User: Which sequence fits this backbone?
């Protein structure tokens, strides 16, 4: 028998067919990517939501601690409150927040009372709630009344809710998930909700 070698035209044609992908292969890859994207996007959104809530909670915690420290340091009444004009306190805790020494105890920042620190308006994807219009610290570091500030995502999902509680002694406590159900509880053990 004669050993036949393929001619060069047949060899080039055979190699060019092996370099491409078929439509079926492409559809399988697109299907796998779609499945991975479906599984990954919710996890990614959860991480972003947690990060925003944690950031807002840490900023507010730092501002409360600063207000207490300034009251002790300057031996005067320190006020932390939300405000829309950086002068008059209001009830909207999503507005910018300011800390000032309230020398005349009128719960408003007068022109001669400088802003010691401020925090910008809350992220639009978060909501902050409190029944207290102001948080006041006396020169000893105690508060005028206990207070709590709840931070929630705009989606109102309870598993992301956090609560900062300020005791009469001026101690700040962050809520925890004590029963491992994925939702933080207040100091009484009641699960937080975002209403």
Assistant:
């Amino acid at each position: 028998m004669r050993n036949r070698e393929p001619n060069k035209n047949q060899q080039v044609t055979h190699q060019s067919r092996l370099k491409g992908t078929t439509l079926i292969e492409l559809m399988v890859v697109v299907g796998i990517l779609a499945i991975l994207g479906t599984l990954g996007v919710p996890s990614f959104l959860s991480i972003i939501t947690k990060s925003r809530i944690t950031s807002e909670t840490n900023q507010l915690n730092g501002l409360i601690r600063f207000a207490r420290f300034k009251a002790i340091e300057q031996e005067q009444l320190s006020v932390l409150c939300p405000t829309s004009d950086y002068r008059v306190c209001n009830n909207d805790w999503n507005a910018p927040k300011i800390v000032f020494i309230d020398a005349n105890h009128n719960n408003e920042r007068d022109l001669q009372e400088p802003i010691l620190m401020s925090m910008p308006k809350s992220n639009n994807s978060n909501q902050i709630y409190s029944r207290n219009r102001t948080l006041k610290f006396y020169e000893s570091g105690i508060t005028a009344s206990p207070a709590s500030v709840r931070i929630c995502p705009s989606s109102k999902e309870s598993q992301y809710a956090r609560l900062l509680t300020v005791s009469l002694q001026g101690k700040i406590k962050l809520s925890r998930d004590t029963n491992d159900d994925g939702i933080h509880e207040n100091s009484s053990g009641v699960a937080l909700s975002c209403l």
About this structure: The longest strand covers residues 147-153. The chain has a mean pLDDT of 88. The longest helix spans residues 23-74. Strands lie at 78-82, 97-101, 115-119, 126-129, 135-137, 147-153, 162-166, 172-174.
